[in-house]
């Protein structure tokens, strides 16, 4: 399995590191536009190999896409991150141009690859890749829900004073401060609904803390987060590499599923060797459906700002 990661910044390097540490890929190519940067990150990471016990070969490239040729999976993390006080949507002008060019360059050398889109505003960037490439929809996957769900579980565990491994939960909808839909009704502690353990008010707080998870970290760090984003991408790449057929909420192009069309939005999907193997349509209650519709309206409004 060969994986290329474009953007050797905070998220790209973290993603490469987690992929290597999990030791399922033979090769990871890091590519960045900044001279020498990806080569430096790759060398630094390779010098952890004997310490961390992995055999994955990590190499770096300054904008030479021939090095990414025949990648099974490509990850797009290139672009600018937000600063405190900004929304992800404010990144659209700069990142749309970068994502469009990067996707096209990657596909020149790896026409059959599976593309994972990370750059923000992620649902709109995923939609842009759909509209500007010929890749089938199962091969374009937006990463947001896996990260948001990990943050949801962190907040649930905190509220329940439980180990994170005891809780389960999922966030669907748009990857934005207002568009996320944490499915509190379906969250469980060891198969028991979390509402058995905490009050409705505390559960509402968990939901709100989850939705602003990225903004909270951006305020603390001065730029957006990278460890959990990198781990989330690596889990998705592993699911493809090992044909795990795991369910992750991912941004995918909807053609009627969940009553939506012509939009990329976070819904549960099965991830395996073909990328998105299937979209899982779960039964939502009316309140959840309404929140999903509002979330989709928010993403569509941002999509409308794209100039293809
Ligand atoms: N979807 C998610 O859940 C999620 C999570 C975290 C970050 N993000 C997004 O990922 C992106 C990257 O975040 P980061 O913290 O790694 O930023 P960063 O600034 O640390 O890294 C971005 C890298 O992209 C490179 N780059 C810019 N233009 C390029 C081009 N045309 N070709 C190749 N490389 C190019 C830059 O040189 C830089 O090294 C941001 O848009 C951020 O908002 C998304
Ligand atoms: O919050 C951000 O801007 C980056 C990313 O989308 C995240 O959720 O960490």
UniProtKB/TrEMBL annotation:
Protein name, entry field: Malate dehydrogenase
Domain Lactate/malate dehydrogenase C-terminal: 147-297
PROSITE patterns cross-referenced by the UniProt entry: PROKAR_LIPOPROTEIN
Any one GO molecular-function label of the UniProt entry: L-malate dehydrogenase (NAD+) activity
The species this protein was found in: Polaribacter gangjinensis
Keywords from the named record: NAD, Oxidoreductase, Tricarboxylic acid cycle
Reaction catalyzed: (S)-malate + NAD(+) = oxaloacetate + NADH + H(+)
Positions annotated as active site in the UniProt record: 175
Family of this protein: Belongs to the LDH/MDH superfamily. MDH type 3 family.
Entries under CDD domains matching the protein: LDH-like_MDH
Gene3D superfamilies referenced in this protein's UniProt entry, alphabetically: Lactate dehydrogenase/glycoside hydrolase, family 4, C-terminal (3.90.110.10), NAD(P)-binding Rossmann-like Domain (3.40.50.720)
Ranges of residues in domain Lactate/malate dehydrogenase N-terminal: 1-142
Residues annotated as binding substrate: 82, 88, 120, 151
